[in-house]
Amino acid sequence: MRPLWILLLTFLFAVQARAQFTRTDSLYISAFGENESLINSEKTKIDTSQHFYLVKSKHLQLLHQNKSLIVSRRLSNEHAIVYLENVQDLDLLRRSIDFAMPANDWWKFPTAFSRSKISNASTSQWMVVTNDEQALRTLLFQLKAKIIESYPGTNTHLVELVNAADVVFLSRSNFVLFLQPFVNKPREELQVNGFDLTANRINSIHSTFPNLNGSGLVVSVKENKFDSADIDFKGRIISSPFSSNTVTSHASIMATMIAGGGNSYHLGKGVAWNSKLISNNFAQLLPLTAAEYNQFHINVENHSYGTSIENYYGADAAAYDASVISNPSLVHVFSSGNSGTSASNSGSYNGILNFANLTGSFKMAKNIITVGATDSFANVEVLSSRGPAYDGRVKPDLVAFGQDGSSGAAAIVSGTSLLIEQAFQQKHHDSLPLASLVKASLINSADEIGGAGPHYESGYGSLNGERAVESIINEDYFMGEVADKGSKIYSISIPAGITTLKATIAYSDPSAQPNSFRALVNDLDLELTETATGQTWKPWVLSNFPNKDSLRLSPVRKRDSLNNVEQISIDHPAAGNYELKVSGYQVSNGSQAFALVYQTDSINQFKWDFPKAGNPFLAGTTKALRWHQTFGGTGTLEYSTDTGTTWHLVSSNVDLDRKYFKWNTPDSFLTGLLRMTVGGRTFVTDTIVFSKKIQLNVGFNCPDSVLLMWGPVKNADSYKIYALTSTFLQPIVTTTDTSLVFSKNAINSKHFTVAPMLRQVEGIKAITTNFETQGVGCYLKNFLATLGANMGTVSLELGTVFKLKQIEIQKDNGSDFLTIQTVNNPSQLTFQFNYPLHPGVNRFRTKLVLENGMVIYSGTETVYYTGSIDYIVYPNPSPVAKGFTLLRKDVDEATLLLYDLYGRRIMQTALLDVTNPISTSSLQRGIYLVVVLDQFGRKKFTQKIILN
Fold first, then answer.
1. Rounded (10°) CA dihedral 613, 614, 617, 623
2. CA triplet 916, 917, 919: central angle to 5 degrees?
């Protein structure tokens, strides 16, 4: 009886003989056929039994039904690499296979890597996907390699090889399915300098839904470590065993944008300002395990970093998709990158500038949210990385404000995701929404950029935080599951006067095989039907053909077979009943859960987005007023500073479709209103405040009390002082004065700020001040004595003259300090005095006398003066134990020699300064001779000194 492998080869060659190879067939045969293998055959350590085959079939899905045959990688709709256990399996599938042949091992590497790169591999770290973990560990032990990091559930391991060339051994193993070089270390995206919560209507959430602040939720900032001493995070940091040891400003800015408490200044208030923060080092690129996310109750993880442009579905992408599957409520948010002007150097979109330039294969994951960047007026930034993903999927999912990079855009979306989760919790007894619902609500509510449907530059549009939250609060969504070939139908009623109906489905799709030609596993379809007429609408779908002109085309309505997000929108729908149908076109296992969100816009609507209550203007600056509306045309903008009695025209021709208007605000501290008149209807803002800057200063920091001071603000009728206590600033007192003295025992805080008040309306707070770090002591801020032109100059700076009766400048006469200058009832904070000096040491101090008789002394300042001579030795006589000092006029290079009375040199030391302490503790009592030589050895000074 012939061996099974001979039977198998006979069958394969017979099948091949009948095959009519197309050009595509030839490309796959050339790339992955055994005859093209470049594996080093001299390496014999690894089992080379053939189990992997290149197969073509028009019915690849049927192969999945055979339990002894596994599709290891889909190459196209008709081509695949299969793992074969028994030769009989191919015979059983004879009718459904066009051809099959033994496969080489190049299919196990990313499509972005050529054979030369693999053969000359320089990296020692590889991500390895295996179908037999124990066998992999045994092989690694033989190679003296080790596993650095593992991600359970995906059979993915980060492996450190001793010899980089050993990757060839791994590729020849039947239990290795994918190898991805780990050469591109993650790095922070560009620095973020701007932060505007009005651009994406986050300020509207804070004003309209003040209880939504992220309370009780945890966000992980995956990159380097943020500054744990930052007062904007006080009391809300969770200690993390995953944290980096490197603190960076980028990480601190991301954390501030997501969850800053606004303690330092009002611009330091983040989106979810009461959520807790945890740091996770991005040096470990794979996600944490499900158990670790659950242990630390992490709800959202922000990823504002990237590597290089990578266009393939790697092991890391599969791991992040699996992370969401195993943690259904965990939201991963990634920045798209800042390579928008670049082109990929691999994959289907190789060489196409301004497209397919996401920075990292992990950003190819399906279940994450990828965010691009806009300026504050929803214009996509040139450097923001764009889609499509490697397989033509829509990326990014949406865009948000990030004027200096997509890092900040991702942070804003992460913060908004926390608020969406909290809104859901408040409606559903603290349970968390599925990540797919968070994603669907963000995408469905986004403001369109460039027309209906998605675009590769902007995804599904610009983040609209308020609308996203409202979709959850109003419960404008459906949750369901659908099986293969099954469907679910949801009815909605559309009233008259609707301008737009939009619906979006999102679902967390199972991980695909790394390197799969298409990442989608389960394919669901969305369809909208008008019940009365039977008219149907399909989702918006973009062309993914690898040509720049094709990628720029507007989306069309058709069935989507690539994305796990689909969106349908129609303009001016007729009033009546509609049905949203979700169908399982292809669901591999059981059923697929999904989230479906919808929204409508009514005609003739106008709503102010900025300003809102609690949004102060900085007086005398240019601010962008913002709104959303469905009127179109123009409006008339006016403002009032007398509660609406009198209105002042700003513009009678405001372009409403532009959605913003730049206005120069009044340069005074006052309250006011804005109103827009459209078609005879007026829309008035909440009461707003135009606030002047105010600065808090420290007058004194005495052992028992502190004086805080600030300048008066015109029109302010009072001032509210805040102290930072356990977590956030708390008001402690309101006063009409411009100073406050408080006892340290009464208020346990070092950080304070003040806000001007006008008729109970609060202006912008001053930058928060730590009274211990302002360089102010007990009244004294600075006291200095220096050598002038044969005179001593004494400079004095006070923190305050509050209840200060007298200033005395004192000089040491050798036995005591005597007053040499007096200033009564001082009215200024800085002073400068000149005094004659005597040769040698001159010591000064300041004495302050308060109105209550309390006396405060400064420290002592010393001026060394040689007068008309070049050198002074003091004290003389000098105690042996203490030594003496040589004072000289200049600091030229010189040497001091010390001789005893017998002429023996006892000491030699270099003179390095004006004052030179000389230690004599090792000498005997007696008379010595001090000699100074210049750099040329010439004697410059000689004097006897007595040591006793």
1. -60
2. 140
Residue listed under structure tokens 């500073």: 641
- What's the distance, Cα to Cα, between the start and end of the chain in Å? 114
- Supply the DSSP string of 13-62, one letter for each residue: HHHHHH----HHHHHHHHHHBGGG----TT--SS-----EEEEE-TTHHH
Chain segment 18-77, per-residue pLDDT in tens: 446 787 788 778 778 875 332 333 332 333 456 788 888 777 666 655 556 677 787 877
pLDDT of residue 44: 29
> Radius of gyration (Cα) for the chain, nearest Å?
38
CA angle 535, 541, 542 (to 5 degrees): 145
Residues 592 and 481 sit within 8 Å (Cβ to Cβ) = yes
Cβ atoms of 569 and 598 within 8 Å: the answer is no
Task: Return the closest-CA partner of residue 250 out of 223, 216, 269, 281.
Answer: 223
Cα gap 893→188, rounded to integer Å: 50
Q: Give the C-alpha separation, 689 to 643, whole Å.
A: 12
The most confident of the ranges 10-14, 318-322, 886-890 is 318-322
CA 182, 362, 157, 76 torsion: positive or negative? negative
406, 466 contact by CB (below 8 A)? no
In Å, what is the CA distance from 92 to each residue of 20, 102, 275, 681?
21, 18, 58, 75
- How many CB atoms are located within 10 Å of the residue 44 CB? 10
Helix 406-427, helix 435-445: angle, nearest 10: 120
User: What's the mean pLDDT in 396-406?
Assistant: 91
Query: Can you spell out the DSSP letters for 583-627?
Result: EEEE-SSSEEEEEEEEEEEESS-EEEEES-TT-PEETTSEEEEEE
Q: For position 481, what pLDDT does the model report?
A: 97
Distance CA 311, CA 765 (A): 48
Beta bridge pairs of residue 944: 929
Three-class DSSP category at 893:
coil
pLDDT at residue 600 tops 90: yes
Residues 281-302, mean pLDDT to the nearest whole number: 93
As given in the structure block, the two tokens for residue 660 are 């913003």
**pTM over cut 0.85:** no
The per-residue DSSP string of 527-585 comes to EEEETTT--EEPPEE----SSHHHHTSPPEE---SS-SEEEEEEESPPSEEEEEEEEEE
For the residues 125-144, what does the mean pLDDT come to?
85
Confidence of residue 191 (pLDDT cuts 50, 70, 90): very low
One-letter amino acid of 251 = A
Contact of 713 with 616, CB cutoff 8 Å: no
> Coil, helix or strand for 446?
coil
775 falls in which pLDDT band (50, 70, 90)? confident
Residues 6 or more apart in contact with residue 14 via CB below 8 angstroms? none
Between CA 298 and CA 131 the distance in angstroms is 30
Q: Is the pLDDT higher at 531 or at 185?
A: 531
* 582 Cβ neighbours under 8 A, 6+ residues apart: 480, 482, 487, 488, 489, 490, 505, 524, 525, 526, 594, 596
- Measured distance CA(592)–CA(758) in Å, rounded: 57
Most confident among 174-183, 307-316, 483-492, 605-614 (mean pLDDT): 483-492
Domains of the chain: 4-108 (no CATH), 121-181 (3.30.70.80), 188-601 (3.40.50.200), 606-684 (2.60.40), 692-773 (2.60.40.10), 780-865 (2.60.40.10), 871-947 (2.60.40.3080)
Q: Output the 3-class SS for 358-423.
A: CCCHHHHCCCCEEEEEECCCCCECCCCCCCCCCCCCCCCCEEEECCCCHHHHHHHHHHHHHHHHHH
Show Cβ contacts of residue 241 under 8 Å, excluding neighbours closer than 6 positions.
none
Question: Where would I find the H helices in 144-302?
Answer: 167-171, 202-208, 249-259, 290-295
Compute the distance between CA of residue 540 and CA of residue 945 in angstroms, rounded to an integer. 98
Q: What SS3 class is residue 513?
A: coil
* Whether residue 396 has a cis bond before it, omega within 30° of 0: yes
